[in-house]
Amino acid sequence: MRVVPALVAALLAILAAGLLAPAVAGPAIVARATPGLGVEVGTARSGEDAPVGVILTDPAGTPVVGASVLVERRVGGAWQPLAGLVTDAAGRAVTVIRLGPVRADNVVRASYAGDATTPPTVTPDVQVELVRRATTLKLSGPGRVVDEQEVTLTARWRADDGTPVAGEVRLQQRRKNRWRTVERLVTDATGTASITLRPRSDAVLRLEAQALDWVRSSRSDRKRVDNLPPVAPVRLSRAVPRPRRHLPPQARAQGAGANPVVTGIPDGVWRSMVGRSWHAGCPVGRDGLRLLRVNYVDFTGYRRRGELVVAAGAVGQFAGALTELHDRRVPIRSMYRVDRFGWSGHLRGADDLASMAADNTSAFNCRDVVGRPGVRSPHSYGRAFDLNPWENPYRVGGRWLPNSWWPGRSHHRVAWRSPSHPVVAILRRHGFSWTYGVADAHHFDARTPRGRVVARCATVCH
Predict the structure, then answer these.
(1) Does residue 122 lie in a domain region?
(2) Are 85 and 185 part of one and the same domain?
(3) Per-residue model confidence as pLDDT tens digits over 279-292
(4) Looking at residue 242, what is its pLDDT?
């Protein structure tokens, strides 16, 4: 390798002082030597030149002048000539090595064939240390994705001189005030990697990479990916009263469409029912009930997974009606089993008043009719269905429950006051009767195969 005279002169001056300074700010110099022949190296960044100096003396310590010294470099595990040097009057010579990003390729040694006074010698291997370059990590891609759809993000890792960096980077997500690694990516020779995600909520992401031999560790800026609902949310003015009780959002939907799944009553579900929605003396036992898990669209436009306990003989009607409600994007605020609201001594069953105050859609509940102690509710048979009760109140004892704002008002998606409303029509197609004629807008009954409604009430049936 040819070295310009000015550089040679400067390096020789440094060598004469017994010290080879690094080419750039970095680690302390590295020096290795054997009796007679020594090597001194500086440091540099990848892509830059680092000085390599040799010094040759005879056994008496006298500089060997005009000696030919071979400097070699190890590349890919094999030694290759780097430079042939001739020592000066001080027994010294200097060259440079262009450093690469692979530390193992930046190893040198020197050898001398020997003469009458100085035996042949080869120095130990000397590692030329890299000064790590600064790097930048960038995470790019769309800032929005519709729930349940995919979004592709791209990671780019570059050194401060623009050189691509190939290596592992970690994709991290901010969860509960902590950064957690969710994926590990490997950038290619172009310093690029991509990943396809299907986020189910808003996400704050970043990239992090550990230092390599030639580059420093790095961290990207935060990137937010907003998860958008697949269905238009329900828009209600601020004047509309909200449910008095708050329920957490249910788990996101599972599978395509409504995906109704019918099972017997699992042990854990039965334990939660006993002493709340079921008790001794109820007209339907565990064997006559089924658990229906089904997807629905909530008021925010996201698909959720709800569940109802219903009569075994009516579960097909419920599954069919809820499938059509889902497919037609009819919003349901929530669909928790009514056991969640605890026991009501007043109703002798699960607390339906609390369920209504939360706008919870429910079915089986072995209890009395609200406002009519001792009169068994049709819900006790598992064939009755209360849908969006907050927006569709019912009248009992001269007052409206669960609120008095919605009666007399309708909404094309969530509140119905006429048999011609699309929601009423959907339920009717699946064999349900609507009881608004007795001022109970949210209540539907699954008719039996003979077209009858179990335990029809003369007035309010809630």
Answers:
(1) yes
(2) no
(3) 999 999 999 999 99
(4) 97
Residue type, 131: V
The answer to whether the CB of 424 falls within 8 A of the CB of 418 is yes
Which regions in the chain score pLDDT beneath 50? 1-8, 10-12, 14-31, 458-459
Give per-residue burial for 380-398: e unless 16+ CB within 10 Å, then b.
bbbbbbbbbbbbbbbbbee
In a domain, 456, yes or no: no
**What are the CA-CA distances from residue 163 to residues 127, 192, 225, 284, 361 (Å)?**
23, 12, 28, 73, 59
pLDDT value, residue 34: 60
For position 64, which CATH number holds?
2.60.40.1930
Do the domain assignments include residue 28? yes
Q: What total number of domains does the chain contain? A: 3
pLDDT given at position 299 = 98
What is the span of the domain harbouring residue 180? 135-228
Quickly list H helices, 338-407. Answer: 352-357
| pLDDT value of residue 336 | 98
- Pull the structure tokens for residue 263: 């099972």
Give the burial class of 164: count Cβ atoms within 10 A of its Cβ; 0-12 exposed, 13-18 middle, 19 or more buried: middle
Torsion of CA 409, 410, 415, 420, to 10 degrees: 130
Does 318 share its domain with 429?
A: yes
Predicted TM-score of the model (pTM): 0.77
